[in-house]
Design goal:
The chain is of the alpha+beta class and about 140 residues long. It folds into two domains: about 100 residues, SH3 type barrels (Roll), CATH 2.30.30.30; about 30 residues. A five-stranded antiparallel beta sheet has the order 4-3-2-1-5, covered by helices on one side. The protein is elongated and about 70 Å long.
């Protein structure tokens, strides 16, 4: 039985934005404003966001945590993100893999989708042939 991973709202918790134009980007909770909002910072990273107030409804907590002090500057957050190697932890997680898969599908061209269709047809034919052999032998 899997253990549930508890993720608490705390300074240093890495969150994934799940709403708005920044959806899918990672940032770190730098300070908690009130029970509805937190101050988050992406550390000026390529895949992150700038320092902004974000509603808790618009973010998803991840199990990843970095060591930063309360109200840390963007440089300190960027250094902590680098030190904790958040990008590889995120890419290795199921969540990160799902986002990467979605991005790959969105960037596919018509020719890529056509090739995928042909490969799926070939796979179905192979499975059908093997199933027919098994039915015939049984």
């Amino acid at each position: 039985m899997e253990q549930a991973i508890l993720c608490f709202v705390e300074v240093g918790r890495v969150v994934c934005v799940n709403y708005g134009p920044e959806a899918g980007k990672l940032c770190v909770i730098v300070d908690i404003v009130n029970q509805n909002f937190a101050l988050v910072d992406g550390g000026n990273a390529e895949g992150g966001i700038g320092r902004v107030q974000l509603n808790f409804k618009h973010m998803a907590l991840t199990p990843i945590k970095v060591e930063v002090e309360r109200s840390a500057k963007s440089k300190a957050v960027a250094a902590a993100i680098e030190a904790a190697d958040v990008a590889t932890q995120w890419a290795a997680s199921g969540w990160g893999k799902k986002y990467a898969r979605q991005a790959k599908r969105q960037s596919a061209t018509d020719f890529d989708r056509f090739n995928t269709m042909l490969l799926r047809k070939k796979r179905s034919q192979i499975i059908g042939r093997e199933l027919a052999k098994l039915k015939k032998s049984a």
